[in-house]
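Risk register update: the risk of archive-format incompatibility is retired. Evidence:
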Amino acid sequence: MKRYWTRALVAFLATVCTVAVIFIWVSGDAGPPTRHRPDPRFEGASLVHFESGTHVRGSSVRTVLRSRHDVTAFSGWFPRLDVESDLAGRDFRTEALIAFMWSTACTKGDSAVLTYAEPTGFSVRLTDTTTSQTCTEPYSAIAVFAVPRDEAPEDVRIGGTSPGPPGPAEQIAFAPLREAARPRGAEVSQPDQLRDFLDGLPEERKGSRPELEDLPESGAGQRLFAYVVQGCRHTGAVLRITEKRMVPEPVGGEGVRCVAPESFVAVFRVPAQQVPPSAAVG
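Archived output:
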């Protein structure tokens, strides 16, 4: 009997040791603890403009703003809103602005964060959200982030692609005039409109005449607008679009003085849906 209990005790201890060895082996093979996914928020960014609601309307936008003129162009996406006043005073010598506008369906947010991941690049995420089951009008959001300028090089990617243009208006021609001309603006989407505009210009031009006469067609859903602008040594222009007016802002020639103002012609192509119905031209 004593021998029986001795054998039973030995068998029990052997079983316990085996289980312990298996546990240690399994635990040791589990490797390091699971690593939590790092927060993709871009820590060097600050949110400098944000709006969310049904009052925000426009096309989807993902772009980089590197100058005050870019800000002027960008505000043209939202002619009913005062976006430019919030952004024009930024220091573009040291920073760039990563800007978004996107539809958020029936979700409204109180803020947004800028994220970064390879190879997608920069993206945006709405935060502090409230979602309705149904909505009569979809919500949209605008978010603009300031980042150090060297964090937004020319080959920067936003949402997996290259940034879009800063604003909806594309400059398709810019030519200096030899003689002074009165500042004015007109729609030139139709051939007869362009002919009337050109007939009102001085005959002699420093620039090539084909640059103004052989303009690309406006195309479906596009409209063309031409302006005479005055200034000094300008190299181009951007179109400021507000609910009330569409006027060009010259680019280049900052700090240069001329004896007399020089005249230039600038022509822009604008998506028809981005033209405010009651805006004056010029």
